[in-house]
Structure formats: structure tokens, C-alpha cells
Amino acid sequence: MIGNLIRSGRRQLHTIISKEIIKPSSPTPSHLKTHNLSFIDQATISTFVPFVTFYPNTGIYPSSHDKTLDLKKSLSQTLTKYYPFAGRFAKLAPSFVDCNDQGAEFLEASIDSSLSDFLKTSQHQDLDQFFPHGLVNQRSNRPDDDDLQSNGVIPLAVQVNHFECGGVAVAMSLSHKIADGNSFVHFLSDWAKTTQLLSSREQKHGLPDDPHFIPYEYMNLNYNGFTLGSDECVTKSFIFPKAKINELKLKVKAMTAEAGQPITDPTRIEVLNWLLYNSAVTAATKNNSGCFKPTGVGQLTNMRSRFMEKLPEKSIGNYFMIMDTLTHNESELKPESFFSELRKQKKMFQGIRDIQTAFDILSGITVKEGQRRFDSVYLSTSLCGYSTYEIDFGWGKPVKATMAGDLRKNSFIMMDAPDGDGIEVLVCLGKQDLAVVQSDPELLAFSN
């Protein structure tokens, strides 16, 4: 039992009350038993993506624990379609998933708090305890994680957390080796829809469309993926309301027009990337005795609709590339320079024919060069527009849906704001840099 322990100076609120393995409801066909990992899968960071959704007690179930019966059954059915998630793969340099139906982990925990109290008083790092084995990004307290002789990596782990008030937090950790953010949200949404079907007396909706797993020929890079790095960092949430984002767009238009390089149609993601990157680089320069260091911002870009030969939106796996906008000197932080380079990169990305062409481009980058590029730039990811606040298991929509853990140092993750008004950004920086960013009047002018 895990009780009210002291961890990192903060009281741990959860007690694990059950653990089990959920297997697919139907066996995986023999011709699908091996799922070969693509070039991007194998090159991707060996980490887990942690996402959690919070639901108040709506009184639909007699108790919150009754919800888990439907959750387990629907998870079993969903795993039948997402069969690699119930398999196993090697702990070092995996090249394929053994789709052996061994199942996903499913834990339940009781929380010594009400949902409303937790959301009012919690800090970002408090989210970590909702995840099975603390499986957040590269950290875990799973007993066999360092045992290379164990049965391989379990790609998916779920923890259902019951608050005293009857509210629930559903936390899920999914291996980035087999899925990106787009895949993750599709799986979570399909699981929720399947749960609704099981619990609803009125069959208002049909089963979700099947996901699309693209078959690849076997290849082995013998490479365990880029590393996140071990530098200490801190993550903080910023909310940018829609009205403030529109003001920022007007500012960018005015500044670029005055410079003679007008940008007439900046997107909300573009202007926020510029604002955050500019603030973070300015902070790093200040903390480096005023010495500017060349850097850049890499935007993780969903390529499914960008290829000339488009992929189905529900293609499951890693289908992203990093679009670099580099800054060699401080003058290139100005919006006219930043947006000019960004638009060039976007045009190049739109010209990539298909996934194989993307693999060919990436294969021309050496491991050493790739890690150096990864380490030297800020990373930005957007999950906006993925309808994470529409994930309804039959108890209503979540009041909060977010990523957990400290991210890679020098990274930004954008998501829809909880109330639908604007964008929430998780900003992960070194402690000193974040302290400067938090007091940046330019950034604060556009955030709550």
C-alpha cells in the first residue's frame, strides 16, 4: 500500500487499492502478431507520454468505483483494435512490437482530497502521483524497469484515481516509441466512446472508426532514440485568452509591416511560438551575462496532412517531423525574421511527397548530428484542436485535461484552455530562466 508519504517535501495523497492486467477482448490475428517499428518510431525518444483528465462527480454511478467495471471492459475492447498497445517490445533499441496480447496495466487509487480542493491548491508537479508507478516521461518506480531480462516494455499503463467527493482522474502513460500525440488522443477518445456505448442504455453512437496501422518492412537501426537530457528544469502553466492572442496577432502584423516584411495572416500557434521563444531566449541571454548563444525553436509537426500523398488522420504511430527555425543572432528574434524563416520551412515541409521520402530525409542525418540539433533548440508541440476537452466516458466532459511531469528542458506544449477560451501552454525551462520569463512584461501582457 502506498499511503500518505512525504515525497520531495510534498504530501503524497494517493493509495493504490488494486492492480491488474487488462488484455484485448479478442486475440490478435496471426498475420498482425508482429508490428514493425518505422524509422521515426525507432528514432523517437524512449519515454512515456503522460496525460490526465479530471471529471467531477455527476451522480450517474452510485459510487466512483462502479465506473471502473465499464472502464475495464471498454479498455479490453479498445485494445483489440489498438493491438500493439497490448504487446511488448525490447527495453533497448526496439525494432518491433510483439503483439502477444499480454495486456495493459490497470491500477486504481484512492485520493485523500476532493477534486475541487486539489485543482485549487495543486502545482504542476502534483499531477505526477496520478500515474501508474509514477510513469511520467523518463521517470518510473516500476520494480522491473532496470531489469533487462524481464518481459520487455509494457507500452500502456492506466491509473483511475478516485477522489473523496466521487470525482475521478483518468491518467494514462503511453510509450512514445509506438505513438505520437495525435495517436494518443485518438486512442483515449476511442476508449471513452466505447465506454459510453457500454454504459448507455440508448445506443446513440456507433463504435469508433478503426485506427490505421501502417505495415513496414523490418529494419533495425540499433538505436534507442534521442535522450531528453538530465538538466534540472521546472514546468509552469500559462493561459493565453483568445482576446489576448488576437492582440498579439495585431502586434505581429504591425511590427512586420513597419519592417517592410508584412505578415498578414499569422496563426495563433505561430505568434505564441514567437512570443515564448523570444522570452525564453532573452531570459537565457540575461542569465548568460548578456551573451547571446545561437539557438532555434523546433516545432514538432504532425505530417499526416502535410505530405503530398496524405495519410489517414487516424494513422497510429509516430508521424511527426521537427521544423527548425534557427536564430544566429539577436536581430533574428524580430518577428519579420522569425516569420520569414518559419514560412520557408513550412513550404519545404509541404513539398515532402510521402512517408518514405520523410524517412529518406531523416536517414541522411547522423545520430550524432541529430542529437546535437535536438539538444541545441527549444522544442514546441501543439495539441490544440484535438478536442481533449470532449473526451467523455459517459460522466460528462473533463474540467481539466493536461500533460504531467517536467518536460524536456527548454520546451513548450500548447493545449486548448480548460474553458475553451484560448490556449494553455506548459513551459519547461531551467529554474533561473523561468524566473525571468515569469516576470517578462511582454509575455505577461498577453497571458492571465
UniProtKB/TrEMBL annotation:
<protein>
    <recommendedName>
        <fullName>Transferase, Chloramphenicol acetyltransferase-like domain protein</fullName>
    </recommendedName>
</protein>
<dbReference type="Pfam" id="PF02458">
    <property type="entry name" value="Transferase"/>
</dbReference>
<keyword id="KW-0808">Transferase</keyword>
<dbReference type="GO" id="GO:0016746">
    <property type="term" value="F:acyltransferase activity"/>
</dbReference>
<keyword id="KW-0012">Acyltransferase</keyword>
<dbReference type="InterPro" id="IPR023213">
    <property type="entry name" value="CAT-like_dom_sf"/>
</dbReference>
<comment type="similarity">
    <text>Belongs to the plant acyltransferase family.</text>
</comment>
